[in-house]
Amino acid sequence: MLEALGLESDMEAVYRLLLERPEMGVRQIAAHLSLSEKDIRSILDDLADLRLLRQEESGEEFLTVSPEVGLGVLLNRIELELAARQRQLEAARSAAASLIMRHGKQRHAPEVVQQLFGLEAVRLRLEQLAATAHTECLSFFPGGAQRPDVMESSKPLDQLALERGVSLLTLYQDSFRNDSGTREYVHWLSTLGGETRTVPSLPMLMVIVDREVALVPLDPEDGRQGALEIRSRGAVEALHVLFMRFWDAGIPWYEQDGPDGTGLSRRERELMYLMSSGHTDEAISKKLGVSLRTVRRTVSILMARLEARSRFEAGVLAARAGWFL
Fold first, then answer.
1. Which residue of 57, 274, 300, 316 lies most exposed, with the fewest beta carbons within 10 A?
2. What class has domain 266-320?
3. Cα distance between residue 94 and residue 312, in whole Å
4. CA 101 to chain centroid
């Protein structure tokens, strides 16, 4: 179970045994695990090298280092090694892509799309991209609010990125403004230089890093299935344009969405557009990230304002009133 930390099965067995019965000597350990005393002494030396064991001067008594300390040190070391290796891989990926683009066009097409299956694979890839971002990280967050533990776990990477000078631009749906956890997270992010805006609805979950790589859902209706990692220059640039269109239309987090010249809020205007396009109340609820009850109440209010007797008539009257301009 602990092979990744450098403990083979016999080493782990000896370490666990000494944690439970620290009074045991070499002969007793060998008998208990059906190993030779020579093998046990070699294993004890290996455990001492890993700083999981301290041997007394007598050579027959051993003091185990607590897992909290000993294994914690090993975990930190492995994590640092993995982080360094990941940075090397990202640098190699960038260098390889540059060489392919410059010299390999006629012979090999670079892999521009990679599938990531499941939330854990997507989460890990996002952490890797955040850790190696150089200039900017742009994000769409549609649907319901993020879980508090997800936002909390992203803080260290967000802070490191901002400290490196990376620009973090995040777009939420307007409905996120009602979530206390999101408000707290946005306030924390803004104190470090992150920028956040909201719009009534967003087409899908999306992350773009350094205008070089983008992550979009395998299935826009179910983000849990995984994501596509796209590195095609043309596709990423198109997604970047899409992001900036929504960003320019967004309202900064600390500004309020007041009524426009027609007396409509942005969310009301979006709701009327979706309704007139034939979306059901359930679909509108999902797209706007609000409750079905809120959708039906708003539809009723807007239809009464238009004096419309049907949804079709409401759409016609709304268009005449310039609500969709």
1. 57
2. mainly alpha
3. 53
4. 29
DSSP 90-104: HHHHHHHHHHHHHH-
Which CATH number does 3-65 carry? Answer: 1.10.10.10
Backbone torsions φ then ψ of 267, nearest 5 degrees: -65, -40
Query: pLDDT of 259-300, one tens digit each?
Result: 666 778 888 888 888 888 888 888 888 888 888 888 898 888
Structure tokens at 261: 């010249």
Cα Rg, the chain, nearest whole Å: 28
Per-residue tokens: 46: 């290996």
Say how far residue 160 (Cα) sits from the centre of its chain: 15
As given in the structure block, the two tokens for residue 240 are 């970047």
Q: Residues 197, 171: contact at Cβ < 8 Å? A: yes
Mapping DSSP onto H, E and C, the string for 124-155 reads HHHHHHHHHCCCEEEEEECCCCCCHHHHHHHH
Report the distance separating Cα 296 and Cα 89, nearest Å.
51
Can you tell me which residue has the tokens 């909201």? Answer: 198
Secondary structure (3-state) at 173: strand
Please check whether the two domains, 3-65 and 111-252, share a CATH topology.
no
Distance between CA atoms of 117 and 230, rounded to whole angstroms?
14
- Three-state DSSP class for 322? coil
Q: How many other CB atoms are there within 10 angstroms of residue 182's CB atom?
A: 21
b/e burial code for range 278-288 (CB count within 10 A of at least 16 → b): ebebeebbbbb
As assigned by CATH, the class of the 111-252 domain is alpha beta
pTM assigned to the model: 0.56
* 6-48 residue pLDDT tens: 778 888 888 888 888 887 888 888 888 888 888 888 888 888 8
